[in-house]
Amino acid sequence: MKQSYLIIGFLVGVGLLLFSGCETFFTSPPEQGETFDQPLDGLTRDQQLAFARGDEAFEKRFSFAEGLGPLFNQPACESCHPSDGKSHPRTNLTRFGLNTGTSFDPLLESGGPQLQNRSLPGVPAEVIPAHANAISVRSGPVVFGMGLIESIPDSAILARADPSDSDNDGISGRANFVFAADYITEEPGPYNGKYLGRFGRKAGVAFLTQQVVTAYQQDIGITTEYLPVENPHPQAGILGDDVADPEVSAATVNDVVFYLRTLAPPKRGEQTPYVQRGEQLFGQIGCASCHIPVMRTGTHPTISALSNVDVPLYSDLLLHDMGDELADNFVEGEANGREWRTTPLWGLRLYEQQLGGTAYYLHDGRTSDLREAIRAHGGETAGARDGFLELSESDKEALIAFLRSL
Amino acid sequence: MGYWSIDVDIIPSLHYSKTPRVKLNVVLLLMLFIFTSQSLGQEETDTLPPPRPFIRGGVYDKPFVTRLFGKTALGGYMEAVWKLEREQGVTEEVTFEARRFNIFLHSALNERTRVFAELEFEHGTEEIAMEFAALDFEIHPMLIFRGGIILSPLGKFNLTHDSPLNELTDRPLVSTQIIPTALSEAGIGFYGAFYPSEQSRITYEVYGVNGFNDGIVLSDGEGTRIREGRGDVGEDNNPAPSFVGRVAYSPNLNVELGASFHTGPYNRYKVDEFTIDERRNLTIVAFDWELTTKHVDLLGEYAFASINVVPSLRELFAERQQGVYGQVNYRFGHGWFTTLPHSHFTAIARYEFVDFDADLKGDGHQRLSLGVNFRPVQDTVFKLDYYYNWMWSRVDVLERGAGVNFSVASYF
Q1: Chain B neighbors of A29, CB-CB under 8 A
Q2: What is the pTM of this model?
């Protein structure tokens, strides 16, 4: 009997130890605002459920039996946006086309404009045709805060546009006006039939649903009820796979769209005096002319969490000439081969954590050094770049510390 | 008409008088009784042909009923689990699980011929599979033929994976992800044992089997997952067999060291005479070790897999995977309970790691498990174990998870 008491005592002790140190022994959740995958505050119960469904669909990795391919880049949304953040250069996408200087051909007949470098076994992957001269390598951007970006009124964005640099500050941001896909709306847009683009590296897409549907089709090779046609493979004369289309329902697409729409940006890091000094310098040398610290949403019809709130994205969502070093010669909507949409800087402090300890900056993840990323700025942003290079070493450090606090 | 329905009154030659008729009837009935009794009795003697079964080869004419009575045995094991699992602080699972109910059947047809089968029910009736169904014919102790659905001798764990045998509730990661236990395949081959000395023994098993299929890359978007390509026992998907084998050396009763392999094409590269794709091979090499003393066991397994991947899927689907586990079992408390003289406890610690893509930093899974078991009798075990997971994504982001299992498993 003595042993029985010992055993019972041991088990009770182990149980108490485990449950008293629950978070130690059973892992703890990340702090609020310290990751990219948390929902906005204030969602209703139904909205939280839709968020959870969208989260699951976003993580879903498709197999060939489920319709992956015949051409694709990655098997899941999350592959290019790990933890809802920026992609690893290993999963970069490549777009190609023919830029004659006066016109741009996306080379649809040769499999353009996106290179799908993966394929169903037995199907050759695409290659970049020899006559393509506009080759744009891009990493997947962060995907949080897209509902906030979507909810900023056109007028707020267009108010900052200065295509002819009428104020002579050297910055001439302009909007990218783009057509909507037929499955989004057949209503002509307000700008000569076009809409204001705000998603993608060159703001080439105006609607979040279109962004998601296109990613399903182009990046994963998955057809949806919105776009039930496979991305063809003209280089091999293949039109589709053996899985019946559509491979994903409209409801699932809507869940993913809702998930992206309601993903919250992370909170700012600690704002020490040193960081605040860096923020001042950021404004003084002209970085904040394009990387606008805060914009504000209008009234959202269904999601109150998106209505009339500040959006600390550090972007004007406009196109800017970024100079030769970053030029890709690739035209997208009204964006030319030297223009890129100002990349939002929010969440920059978590890039390393979200990519296993190494951050990859710029549109193609070419550098892990923020100074190098700033040095690559040219064109309209050359003035701000030079301003940074002329700072003292301690001021540069302060500015970098500010960036690492975002 | 049968004998019993003969009416003697219809036989005119026997109608003499009333009284004699009655007497005659009695005599005739007596004769008929004797005749029929003799006729029936004759069927039970050895001089007549054997009884004719209702249907020759039918359900009551099976050898296990007619000839092997007492030589066919039925058994099995069951396992039930309660588990709690959390990942990154979020409770993923709190559930009871009727994990397995396996039925064994063994029949010794004669001294040299045996049939063994194992029918597995997983998660109730969610998955039902014939895990083993093979005939053994002993030509010599060093050369025994085996054919049917065999348990592939790839690593030791795959051969000894019954829940009541294992001290922890969950199987080792390497033995489920790199060696996809339970790996059973249709095939034929030989096994046997040699005894170099009085104490030592060398055993071998080698079989030709159907092998794996394209599911390795087609079934799971996660990447290369060998488990998803476990072959169909009905038909090979390509014209070339795979081969699997294991050699084990045991210098004495307490030690065994094993080396095993599985190699062959996994993809469907030929249809009839038409070559439709390049042949792609999967090769798995495994090493296992086991040291057993009165109180302590040291055991483990290492496996390495090389997978030919179609060029357009390289970097996304791993071409090399590997994994290892090491485990210590310590038995104590024998006879602590006087009413259970054969009972004892076991304390267990296991470390394991699986690298799902050996060419990539990331895409790995590491686990540490600690457990305490109680065996009231040797074939029944109550297990309580705790584990902590470290999981790296393909971009090398670490996620942590942990859990507790309480399970019971027993042979019957």
Answers
A1: 88-90
A2: 0.85
Residue A114 contacts B, CB cutoff 8 Å: no
Q: State the total domains in chain B.
A: 2
Cα(A129)–Cα(A314) distance, integer angstroms: 37
Instruction: Specify if A219 maps to a domain.
Output: yes
- Residue B409: enclosing H or E segment and its boundaries? strand B398-411
Residue A137 belongs to some domain of the structure:
yes
Give the range of the structural domain holding residue A52, as residue numbers without chain letter.
45-267+286-390
Q: B398, A356: Cβ pair inside 8 Å?
A: yes
Please tell me which of the candidates B221, B277, B402 has its beta carbon nearest to residue A61.
Answer: B221
Q: Nearest 5°: CA angle at B49, between B44 and B52?
A: 85
CATH label of the domain that carries residue B369: 2.40.160.10
Instruction: Say if the ipTM goes beyond 0.90.
Output: no
Kindly list the residues from chain B whose CB atom is less than 8 angstroms away from the CB atom of residue A121: 214, 217-218, 267, 277, 310, 312-313
Q: What single string gives the DSSP state of each residue in A51-110?
A: HHHHHHHHHPPPPGGGT--SEES-SSHHHHSGGGSPPPGGG-EEEEEEE-SS-EE--GGG
pLDDT of chain A, 406 residues: tens digit per residue: 566 677 777 777 777 766 666 778 888 888 889 999 999 999 999 999 999 999 999 999 999 989 998 999 999 999 999 999 999 999 999 999 999 999 999 999 999 999 999 998 888 899 999 999 999 999 999 999 999 999 999 999 999 999 999 999 899 999 999 999 999 988 999 999 999 999 999 999 999 999 999 999 999 999 999 999 999 999 988 888 889 999 999 999 999 999 999 999 999 999 999 999 999 999 999 999 999 999 999 999 999 999 999 999 999 999 999 999 999 999 999 999 999 999 999 999 999 999 989 999 999 999 999 999 999 999 999 999 999 999 999 999 999 999 999 9
Q: How far apart are CA A347 and CA B207, in angstroms?
A: 56
